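Can't paste images in this forum, so I'm doing it all in text. The chain is below; anyone willing to post the predicted structure tokens underneath?
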Amino acid sequence: MIFSEIEQHFVNLPNLLSLSRVAFLFVIALLLYWGFRGAATASLVLYILAAITDWADGWVARKYGMITDFGKLMDALADKVLNVGVFVVLYTVPGLMPGWTIFLILIILSREFLITGLRQVAATRGVVLAAEKSGKIKTVFQIVAASLFIANAAAVHDFAMATWFCDLLAGAAIILLLIATAMTVQSGYGYLSKYWHLLTGAPTEPKPPHR
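Text version of the structure:
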């Protein structure tokens, strides 16, 4: 019985699309560490494809009535694994990110762990916290920032573009990362303030009856 339920989750197309983002991360990491000419460009293409699955899994789930609690949790978790993982990879590959950006990455990582913990606590109380609009917006900024960092690596190593253009890409990537970090903090605060009662053990407020 348990195995049949697990199998149902994994044959669900939206869930497979969500899980694919984890696989994309490992391929992107391999390419960036490998570092042959064209690797950064391939990484950028794969990262964009992985980001598209974030939209695709939700669209498929809604259109074909395949929304599940597992899918809601996995969609949000896969986003975190992909985006935080890409930032970690970018930081650890020499020359792709400035050293001081580690503090921004740690802020993003801390927020994601906190909200993941909140979701786990909520699940034990029978509450499923699906991704909210603020979380989706910060994810978009994270994706754009990471994409610019990878694009800059491609411009430098794959296409040997002019220094001024590479500097422009690098500057834009840092600005977007700063904005993404601020929105990540704001989104995390919104989640915690809205669902703090779940962490404190306070009873969940009943929904008002429909009139």
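The first helix runs from residue 2 to 10. DSSP finds seven helices and no strands in the chain.
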